[in-house]
Amino acid sequence: MKKTISLVELIIAITLMGVIVMGAMSIYYLGQKILTSADNKMTVLNEFTYVIEMINKDVLLASGDRTNQGLTLVTSAGNDGLSIRQDISLATGLSNQTPDDYSDDRTVIYWFEGPPNRRIISTISGVTSNHLVNLHGTEPLCLVFRDGGVEIKNLAIRLDPSKPFDPQDNPQVTSVDLNNNSTLFFASACHSW
Q: pTM (2 decimals)?
């Protein structure tokens, strides 16, 4: 007697094979989606961290005193900027070792541009050095100077600022916590109080 596969057995085998392949494909695509989502979140978080570290590094080097602050608010063309005076030579990039003489200091400004650009640009003594990141936010960015430092409120960075927030495809990192409080405060280590 010859053993052969019947048509019913063949259809069952093909159906089972299709279910297994479809299951494997759905697991693969779900993994890809999770990986892409995690990558998008890390990209935004890295940009946010980079900006915060740059500002923190420069604010720590701010030099000034009670009557001549090293951290000031500047405004140009409707954009606010955080001006940071540092006792650093423009020519060498090294400390001038003249903390009481502000005439030889360099100035770093972080410009927080409003709509339509919504970005942070840094300048060193008037020369644009870096377009740091594109911003997003419905509330205007706010700088509050207190206790020898600066508090930045409403800082929000989104993967694509032109698109709406989506936790998976267009994540956002913000400086505002769940209680609507600002979470960023920078203080200078070089101020003489």
A: 0.76
pLDDT digits (tens, 9 = 90+) for 62-113: 888 878 888 888 888 777 888 888 888 777 777 878 777 888 888 888 888 7
Helix intervals (H) in the chain: 7-60
Give the domain extent around 122.
Answer: 31-187
Report the domain count for the chain: 1
Contact 110, 81 (CB under 8 A): yes
Helix (H) or strand (E) holding 131: strand 127-134
User: pLDDT grade, residue 10 (50/70/90)?
Assistant: very high
Give 178's Cβ-side CA count (13 Å radius): 0
Question: 3-state DSSP helix/strand/coil percent for the chain, to nearest 5?
Answer: 30, 35, 35
What does the buried/exposed string (b/e) look like for 135-157 if buried means 16 or more CB atoms within 10 Å of the residue's CB?
Answer: bbbeeebebeeeebbbbbbbbbb
List, for residues 105-135, the tens digit of each pLDDT value. Answer: 888 888 887 776 677 888 887 776 766 777 6
Q: Which two tokens stand for residue 138?
A: 């419905």
- Transcribe 67-91 into DSSP letters: SS-SEEEEEETTEEEEEEEESB-TT
- With respect to residue 12, please indicate whether it lies within any of the assigned structural domains: no
Instruction: State how far the Cα of 101 lies from the Cα of 150, in Å rounded to an integer.
Output: 23
pLDDT of residue 15: 96
